[in-house]
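Appendix B. Chain record.
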Amino acid sequence: MGFFKTLEINDDNDKKSGELEPTENVKCLIIGSGPAGYTAAIYAARANLKPVIIQGMEAGGQLTTTTEVDNFPGYPEGVTGPVMMEDLKAQAERFGTDVRWGEVTSVDFSQRPFKVIVDNNKPFIAETVIIATGATAKYLGLESEKKFRGAGVSACATCDGFFYKGLKVAVVGGGDTAAEEASYLAGITEKVFLIIRKPYMRASKAMLKRVENTPNIEILYEHNTKEITGTNVVTGVTLIKRKGESDEEEVKIDIDGFFLAIGHKPNSDIFKDYLETDDVGYIKTIPGTSKTNVEGVFAAGDIQDSIYRQAVTAAASGCMAALDAERFLAEQE
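Structure tokens predicted for this chain:
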């Protein structure tokens, strides 16, 4: 089959180095295991599409790094991100979804059925593919970010802002997203420090005006984050303020939460040879659907959503993708 090679098993069951395992044929292959992937699996399994999920490097997606989730329907007392993902996984498996560990390392969408390789040696032939690989938030690269992730460090104000009601927070970023996050948090918290490394904001004039006219937002131009401080949770941040060409000053601020708003990177690199993406890398879908430019390939969740990026909207688009895949297969019969 060209792209694939069926592995011959010797009597001693040893695999020759570099050879592929036997090819598997599936009706619906789902790549990614966040709210979009699991919801797609629930609908696809109930439609008897016998879906297979490839979980990816971060099983459960970004929500596995989140503590409390209070804004997903059906959890009146709230739930932790990891528990919610296990609930969605269990529900998908209840209807027969085959959940696999592994990472998709290459694809060939040039013709149907599609060819997908997992972990460099596990080939699949798929009649439909649902891509739900999400987008990864960009971080500053500080060790203290990793230490306090989920304990005061967040990349989603809409998701986590509620927990800082009446407290002081900082937002890092200078674009429209940072301005929107700061404005949202200003309506909840006592004070928002907007940290910008340049002497100006990249945000639109409208967003800049909105931020400047919000009394409890303090814009800190030409400040860089040196370290996020605290013991078990965030209690402060140390900044470096640029005062001249070669003059700097260390500034310490007391805060309870630290929000990143410097962008996201869609996890779409391996699909770009076949699928249309925007300038950032989000997969383009036909408006009102999950359909990509390749018939039989669908995209759901944050991989195609640069605006909302919420668990509930990701789940909704996963539903759409499964329904689109089911209808597509019915049309092929």
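Further analysis of this model is presented in Appendix C.
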